[in-house]
Specification:
By secondary structure, this protein is mainly alpha-helical. The protein has helices at about 95-100, 105, 110-125, 135-170, 185-205, 230-255, 265-285, 290-325, 325-330, 330-335; strands spanning about 5, 15-20, 45, 55-60, 65, 75, 85, 90, 210-215, 225. The chain folds into two domains: about 45-95, Tumor Necrosis Factor Receptor, subunit A, domain 2 (Ribbon), CATH 2.10.50; about 105-310, Rhopdopsin 7-helix transmembrane proteins (Up-down Bundle), CATH 1.20.1070. A two-stranded antiparallel ribbon has the order 1-2. Strands 3-4 form a two-stranded antiparallel sheet. It has a two-stranded antiparallel ribbon with strand order 5-6. Helix 3 packs antiparallel against helix 8, helix 5 (about 185-205) runs antiparallel to helix 6 and helix 7 (about 265-285) packs antiparallel against helix 8 (about 290-325).
Length: about 350
C-alpha cells in the first residue's frame, strides 16, 4: 500500500508527502516516536549516553528548584523566600503550606492557623496607614483596620485555646464535653468575637469617626495629626482585645502542662503574655505622648505584639517541621492531633 511519496526536486520541507488517513496501524494505536515517556512537571530530561535524543531519563528537580512544564530540560530556582512543594511543580511561600498534610500542621485545627497568619499579616501591614501625612481617610481606616484584624487574630488564638481545653476534657467516652467538639465551634468563636469588634467600629464611624486636625498648641508650629473622634470607642476597641487576650491566657495557663507534643497551650500562654505585656507598657506611654510620638508608640506596640504572637505560636512548630521531621512523622504521635 502506497501511503506517500518522496521527491527530491521539491523544496526541503515538502519533499516528503504522507497521507496519514490511509495508514492502518496495528491495534489501531499510533506508535510513539520516542523510547521514553514524557517527563512530568517537577522533573527534567537527562539524555541517556550512547542513545538517540528521544531516549532519556526523567530526574526529579534538585532541592529548591521546580518545573511547571512537561519535558523540561532544566529546572528553575524558587525565589529566596519560597520553596518548592512536594511535587516540585510550583513554589510556595509558607512552611505551613508546604507541609499542609503533616500532623503538626493539622494539630489544633490548621485552618485556624491560616486564619491567624492572615490576620497577623494584615495587622502588621496596618502600620503603613500610620506613616505619612494624616488625612481624613487614613485617620478613619488605620484604627478601624488595626482593631478588626487584631481582633480576628486574638479570636483565633482564643478559639485554639478553647479547642485544647475541650479536647482534653472530652477524652473520656462518657464525657459530656464530647458534644462540644466539632468543626463549627472554632469558627463560631472567631465569628462572634470579631462581629462585636466590627459592631463597635460601625458605631464609631457612624457617630464620631476619626478625622484630621491641626494642633496649634505649640508656638510657631502647626502639627497635623489625627483626632480619634470618640475616645470611648477607641478604648473599647483596645479593652476588648485585651479582654480576649486575657481569657486566652488564663485558659491556656490552666492546661499548659498537658503531656502532648502537639499541645499548643504553652505557645498560646507565651504569646498572650507577650501581647498583654506590650500593650500594658504601651498604653501609659501612649497617653503621655503627643503628636508623632503617639504614632510611634502605637506602631511599636502593633509590631511588637503581632510579632510576639507570630514568633511564640509558629516558631516552635516550624522548628519541629524542619529540624525534627522524624518526630512528627511517627504514627502514634500523629493520632494525637486535635482537628
Amino acid at each position: 500500500m502506497v501511503v506517500g511519496r518522496f521527491d527530491a526536486s521539491f523544496l526541503e520541507d515538502k519533499q516528503l508527502d504522507i497521507n496519514p488517513q490511509i495508514i492502518t496501524w496495528r491495534q489501531n494505536s499510533i506508535p510513539k516516536g520516542r523510547c521514553s515517556e514524557s517527563c512530568l512537571p517537577g522533573t527534567r530530561k537527562v539524555l541517556r549516553e550512547g542513545y538517540y535524543i528521544c531516549c532519556y531519563d526523567c530526574i526529579p528537580c534538585p532541592e529548591g528548584e521546580f518545573t511547571i512544564h512537561s519535558d523540561s530540560e532544566n529546572c528553575q530556582k524558587c525565589p529566596e523566600d519560597e520553596w518548592p512543594n512536594e511535587g516540585r511543580n510550583t513554589c510556595v511561600v509558607r512552611i505551613f503550606t508546604l507541609f499542609w498534610k503533616s500532623p503538626i500542621v493539622r494539630a489544633n485545627n490548621r485552618n485556624l492557623s491560616f486564619i491567624l497568619l492572615t490576620a497577623l499579616m494584615f495587622s502588621l501591614l496596618c502600620v503603613f496607614l500610620f506613616i505619612g501625612r494624616p488625612v481624613d481617610i487614613t485617620c478613619m481606616l488605620r484604627q478601624i483596620f488595626f482593631g478588626i484584624f487584631f481582633t480576628v487574630a486574638v479570636s483565633s488564638v482564643l478559639a485554639k485555646t478553647i479547642i485544647v481545653c475541650i479536647a482534653f476534657k472530652a477524652t473520656r467516652p462518657d464525657s459530656s464535653w464530647r458534644k462540644c467538639v466539632g468543626v463549627k465551634l472554632p469558627y463560631s468563636v472567631v465569628l462572634v468575637c470579631s462581629s462585636l469588634q466590627i459592631l463597635n467600629a460601625v458605631i464609631w464611624l457612624s457617630l464620631s469617626p476619626p478625622y484630621q486636625e491641626l494642633n496649634l498648641d505649640y508656638p510657631g508650629k502647626i502639627i497635623i495629626q489625627c483626632n480619634e473622634g470618640s475616645v470611648l470607642a477607641f478604648y473599647l476597641m483596645l479593652g476588648y482585645m485585651g479582654f480576649l487576650a486575657a481569657v486566652s491566657f488564663v485558659l491556656a495557663f490552666m492546661v499548659r502542662t498537658l503531656p502532648d507534643i502537639y499541645n499548643e497551650a504553652k505557645y498560646i500562654t507565651f504569646s498572650m503574655l507577650v501581647f498583654c505585656s506590650v500593650w500594658i507598657a504601651a498604653i501609659p506611654a501612649y497617653l503621655s505622648s503627643t503628636g508623632k510620638h503617639m504614632v510611634t508608640v502605637e506602631i511599636f506596640a502593633i509590631l511588637a505584639s503581632g510579632g510576639g504572637i507570630l514568633i511564640c505560636m509558629f516558631l516552635p512548630k516550624c522548628y519541629n517541621i524542619l529540624m525534627e521531621p522524624e518526630v512528627i512523622s511517627k504514627g502514634p504521635l500523629s493520632q494525637r492531633c486535635v482537628m
